[in-house]
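Cross-check.
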Amino acid sequence: MYIVKIGGGASINLDGIVGGLTSLDAPFVVVHGANALRDEVAARLGIETRVLTSASGYSSVYSDRDAIDLILMAYAGLRNKRIVALCQQHGINAVGLSGLDGRMIEGRRNRGIRVREGGKTLIKRDFSGKPAAVNRELLHLLLEGGYAPVLCIPIIDEHGCPINSENDDIVNVLQESLGARCILQFIEAPGFLDDPADPQSVVACMTPAEVAAREHRVTGRMKRKMLALRRLTETASTRVVIADGRSERPVADALAGKGTVIG
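Predicted model, tokenized:
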């Protein structure tokens, strides 16, 4: 079993990634982003994307009702169905679902994000939360039927409402249900960079302990990603490969260990 996480950047080689999925020797589940497409749609509609940084230093998109509508359009709509279409063109019988559909990914809405503004600590409430469970029956029904699930946000909260969440956290709850032997993560970089400004500074391999140590040295959204990666490598005996999603043959490169290998 594989879990394939595809970043949402504009330069990700979707056709190359999907074409490479045909070479995998086991079933797989795709989890994808769409941040570049979301921002493009937001610009067309005149909607501002806001980012909050919590008092503890973790950054996330402020998810008001407009942001949820953008997610439904860009993630569950355009990006999801474009990936499903590519899968079908490559002979992969994919089914595209958001976390809402069939309650595929359930979560708990955040009670509030503690932020610092103007020297004060404030609580910002929005439509975001953390995934807590996967609909295993539906997921295994698809996999056993020979379908390739292609999943994205929004997920569903305890009130039946769509909420934003982090794909890194979604991968973690999927791994708890699937026990994938390998997790491929495709990003807009050659791998995890020791220096974000230097594309030559790829860290070829990391142990779980090194992941935990690096979490304390990064900031912004990368800090949140490293937290999720630490939790993943702490609880799962699996191989994680962070690879360049822009290359000509992203999947073949990742399987060959080109990028950053953890585990």
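The chain has eight helices and 16 strands. The chain has a mean pLDDT of 91. Passed to J.P. for a second look.
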